[in-house]
Each structure stands twice: as structure tokens, then as C-alpha cells.
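User: I'm curious whether this sequence folds into something compact or stays loose and floppy. Could you predict its structure so I can see for myself?
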Amino acid sequence: MRLWRKASGLLKDHKSIWLASLSRRTSFRNPEMEAAVIKATSHDEIAIDIKNVDRVYRWLRLSPSHLKSLIWSISLRMEKTRSWVVAIKGLMLMHGVYSSKIPAIQRIGRLPFDLSNFTDGHSDPYKIWGINAFIRAYFTYLDQKSSLLFMNLQERRNLQNLEHVNNNNNDNDNNENGNNYNNVVVDGRYSMTQDLILIQKLQYLLDILLEIRPLCDEAVVPLVLEAMDCVMIEVFDVYSRICNGIARILLRIYSAGKVEASMALRIVQKATIQSEELSLYFELCRSIGVKNAAQFPRIEQIPHEDIKELEEIINGVSEKDSQLTKTLVVHEKILDHQNLEERRKLRTVITDKWEKFDEDLIQNNVPSKPPELPDLITFL
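Assistant: Here's the prediction. I'll summarize afterward.
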């Protein structure tokens, strides 16, 4: 049965590559890239075609303008597949796109394909349910991350436009009342609120991340473990950003009002719960053989006394000259140089080094009126 699936998958891949070679090159469709994506997301459930994975990312490093073609190619592949193997490889490939740190990625919005109800069409559902659930959880995280990146971009643009308008108004009106609206933008408490909201969003993402796991023994297969390696890197990145944000907030907490202090308390309480969940998550990952799980340090807990002190700030009991240095030290321990060094040791999905290769320098004729992009892809 397994040999038959392998042969069938191989034939499907060859057919898809042949069909891709017949397509016309446009501003957003690249037959060579489509072929590379098909090979990088082949039906082979044992091996990953690293050569073509790297080839796909080289296109992206060569020029961010290739992002449209890459997203089109991945989406086309994901929309048609009923194979859990292809789905996991496609999600890993898309995960690597978000690791490239190209600014244009923030403009994608929701993912232009949907695996939220994915079910493998070629296996016994009773045996494959754990892998199906893994794929749906992985997709949900990437979709939510992409959506939040887009919303944050919109918020930053709105803030910049507001600052520009206020600066112009300030030039035309130098009396005291003329500065009030502009002060809302640059006021320290406003910045703290924005930071608090960002931390809450990161904690929301971390909750979704921790849902990505094999739910049964049948789901602990080599390809799932490869995907979990990528997930572990993402977990550490998101959690370290949360800890960094909390440390910054605690430095300014006594200049905040009760609203900000209340938000900070909820965040710290949430961080306490998540640190416990992270410890259990890392133990699970180590027990099933996820390589990157062995690289992560022990998770520090936030002392109960520091949470109590935040409560006292909200209630007006604590004096302004007291300090929350203990909490700050705890979070600095989490993000100290040793832990950052551990992170550097982890296997990365995509590098920032820009490269060129000969076939990408060949000039190609592009039709004057390319087809429109799918509605779900937004490039502003």
C-alpha cells in the first residue's frame, strides 16, 4: 500500500511539473518557480527536497518582487492537494517565507489558501486524524500571524498619518491648546498602551502556537517532527518578544495610570500561566524527539510577590519610589546572552544573505496585461 502511494504521488508530481511548464510567464506567475515549489512539496513522506527549498528562497532573496510569484505558486499547490505530506511541506515553505523578514510580507493579510478544514483524502481517517489536526493547527497559526502583521502595518500607517497631520497643525497654531492633540500621539502613556496591546497580541499568538503538536502516537512521524523543529524556533522567538516587552513595560510602570497598570497585571498573570504551559510543551517535544527542543533553556517563573506588587500599584497602596527590579531581573535572565547564544545554534529556515544565480538573470518577455491576482492576496 505504501509503495503504491509513493508511485502514485510521484506520478502526480511529474504531471503537475509538466502542467506548470506549459503555463505562460506573467508578472505574478513563474513556471520555473512553480516547478521548484512542486518539487519542494513533493509527495515523498520521508525526504524533503532541500535543493529546491533553497532554490525557492533564493528567488525571494534575489528580489522581493518575486514574492507575488512565490505566494501564487504555493497557493496553487495547497488549494489542489488532498495529501497530508504536501500540506505539511507547503506550510513549512510558507513559514520560511515569513522568516525572511521582507517588509512586503506584512501586506499579504490572510493567507490566500485555506487548510482550516483539511482532511487527507488518501488514508484511513481513523489513522490519520492526528496529522490532520496538526495541519489545521499549523495553518491557523500562520494565518493569524499573517493577519496580525497586516493589521499592525495598517495601525503604524495610521499613526504616521496622524503624526503628519498634527505636525502640520502645530506649525499653523502655536498656542497652548494647539498642542493637545499632538501630545496624544507622542505621550508616554499612549506608547505604553500600544506596547501593552502588542504584548497581548503576542500572547494570543503563543496560545495558538502551543496548539501545534502531535495529538497521538500515529502523528509522530519524521515529517511532523521536521515541522515541529520550525515551530520550536517560532515559539522561542514569540516568547522572547513577550519577555522583552514585559521588561520594557515594568521600567515605566510607575508613570502609568491605573488602566495601563491593570493591563500590565493581566499580561503578567497570563505570562505566568504561559510559562508553565511552555515547560510542559518543551517536555512533550523532547519526549517525542524534536531536535530543537533540546536547545531551549528552563523557563523562569514570575515571583508571586511581583504580581502582588502590581496589584498594590493598581490599588494605590504602593509608593511611587518603590521599584519592580526583581521582576525585571527575572525577565533579563530569560533573555540573557546565554539564551540568545542557544537560539543562534538552532537550525534556521531561511537566511538573510542575498544571492544571485545565473538562470534568474535571464531576461523574459512579460505580457502587457497580466491576469489579476486572487482576491485573497492583498499587495498595497
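Summary: The chain is about 65% helix and 0% strand. The two ends are 48 Å apart (CA to CA).
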